[in-house]
Amino acid sequence: MEFHVSKEHVRRESRKAVYLILFLAVVSAGLVAKVLSTEKISDLFFPIIGLLVFAPPIFGSYKRIREGKGAYPVLELDELNGKVAVLHKDLKVIVDLSQIKNLRLQRKSGQLVSILLKTSSGENLRFDGYENLDVLASALERLTPKESITNASFYHR
Question: How many structural domains comprise the chain?
Answer without folding.
Answer: 2
